[in-house]
Amino acid sequence: MTDAVTASTTVVQVAAGADRARVVLRSGAIAARILERRPRYARVGLVAAGALLLGGDAVDLRISVGADCTLELEDIGGTVAYDGEGRRASWTARIEIGDRGICTWHGQPFVIADGADVDRRTDAELGDGAALLLRETLILGRVGERGGAIRARTGVTVQGTPALIEHLDVDGRSPIPGVLGSDRVLDSVVLIGREPAEQDPPWRTSGIAVLRPERGGLVVRSVVDAAHLGDLATRWGALREELIHEA
């Protein structure tokens, strides 16, 4: 994590401890709170420290998981990107996971309201034997809205080798056929660094797409018109239990 840390930067660092994991927290635009600790395990809640996300806001999260440690991150409440009145907002998360480390992050819905213009980026670096599990739900617009614009970037490397690179540019005012089209919700569960116990899950039959990254793992995705129609809670829960069982 060599880039400059600003007042809006939230830092979460976890390392092994004798009785409890050593956890370093710094709250910025997002406040971080310890929910649970064991010698090599920590669960941390993330909650907005103020009104988010407004035009001009720049949210920055730096997450570091030590070797042989497990960190569970939980968003406490969803996020709404409001009308920026011509100003762009950004949301950046950078995750580093040491050898054999595990990080899970259960994100709550991220809503892009009419007039919002957002850059959202997640970058992760995994060490040898490390694993990352992410839950992300992007929603174009609140009820009755078409939604603003978002450019979402995800990049995951394993020991320096790219494992997942995704770019998504959507604007509720100009739906693109083959991307979201007339739908408003992109619901995703991403697992990198582990193979699921069930090698051929029967999820495709329920209208859910399943992709297989080259470096091992799973990308489960649903594109629907309303969040409750594409809920991936069951899939997330099964994959999380597999990882946390190792902790």
Q: Briefly, what is this?
A:
This protein has 247 residues and is mainly β. Helices cover 5% and strands 50% of the residues. It has 1 helix and 17 strands.
What does this protein structure show overall?
Helices cover 5% and strands 50% of the residues. It is mainly β. It has one domain (9-244).
Query: Could you give a short account of the major beta sheet?
Result: 10 strands, mixed
Can you tell me the overall shape? globular
Bin the helical content.
under 10%
Distance between the termini: 25 Å
Q: What keyword list fits this structure?
A:
247 residues, mainly beta, ten-stranded mixed sheet, seven-stranded mixed sheet, 1 helix, 5% helix, globular
Question: How would the blueprint of this fold be written?
Answer:
Layout: E1 9-15, E2 22-26, E3 30-38, E4 41-48, E5 58-65, E6 70-75, E7 79-81, E8 89-97, E9 102-106, E10 110-112, E11 117-126, E12 131-140, E13 149-158, E14 161-171, E15 185-192, E16 209-211, E17 217-224, H1 233-244
Parallel strand pairs: 1-5, 4-6, 5-8, 6-9, 7-10, 8-11, 9-12, 10-12, 11-13
Antiparallel strand pairs: 1-2, 3-4, 12-15, 13-14, 15-17, 16-17
